Amino acid sequence: MTGNGLIRLEDHGARVDVVLNRPEARNALNLAMCEDLIKAFTRIASMPDAGLVVLRAEGPVFCAGADLKERKGRDEAWVKARRRLAFLAYETIGNCTLPVIAQVQGALVGSGGEIAMSCDFIVASDAATFRFPEPQWGTVGATQRLQRVVGVPRAKELLYTGRVMEAEEAHRIGLVTTLTGSADLAATVDEMAERILRAPALALRLTKHCIDQGARTDLSSGIRIELAAIDRLLSESDWRGGVDRFGAQIGSAGKEQKA
Question: Which has the least CB within 10 A, 81, 89, 158, 189?
């Protein structure tokens, strides 16, 4: 557990699971959870064996959005501070240098979407639903990440209407990258995590760095970012061994297909 006990950190060596652990409140995001998310990902940054993170939730609901009950009786200054802490939590997830998979099994609302979209991609069950109702209850949120994932017109439509989007549509528009049956969700993520972890750790980190930084700039600058990463990889890694191992894998796969 992290500080407030609302986020569970599971260390499996190369794989680390960050678990939203407030199922009795449908994992609604409150201030303590924001603090624990920041602490969890800060701790992961200092874990030398960690190579990948799976962010998932306890119970049938991934995250029911912001916990509005905690705002009763609060003033504007408190709400502003609480919102800024949430943005810091999302940023901390997004800044993780390791691959981060969001595993979504049920309803995802508002802040839950911000958490999931801060990960590298979303794997969801076909029972998952997605809703971004911020304007419907009189606030502003999800205006930046959502448009970058699904495009400006679709983000506007989802935010303006606050409608519930089924998993199949979320997959079709690119919010969800992999869709699977509810019973197969955990196994699908497990297999994907194992596949990712076969790649050399430095190559994974630099690939994520290049994609994230390149998305913020033009193509020429992005190429320079990639070339710098290649230089670092050649000087700091066993790249020859990596080429040999990959070649052996391709050879084995070819033999299996012929058999």
Answer: 81
Q: pLDDT by residue (tens digit) across 189-237?
A: 999 999 999 999 999 999 999 999 999 999 999 999 999 999 999 999 6
Instruction: Look at residue 250 and tell me whether its pLDDT is greater than 60.
Output: no
Cβ neighbours of residue 126 closer than 8 Å, sequence gap 6 or more: 167, 168, 179, 180, 181, 182
Distance (Å, rounded) from C-alpha 129 to C-alpha 167? Answer: 5
What global pTM score does this model have? 0.91
Compute the Cα dihedral for 57, 62, 65, 70 and give only its sign: negative
Kindly report the length of the chain.
259
Q: Where are the alpha helices (DSSP H) in the chain?
A: 31-44, 76-94, 111-117, 145-150, 152-161, 167-172, 185-197, 201-214, 219-236, 239-258
What token pair was written down for 184?
A: 């197969």
Q: pLDDT class for 249, splitting at 50, 70, 90?
A: low
Please answer whether residues 28 and 66 qualify as being in contact, where contact means their C-beta atoms are separated by less than 8 angstroms. yes
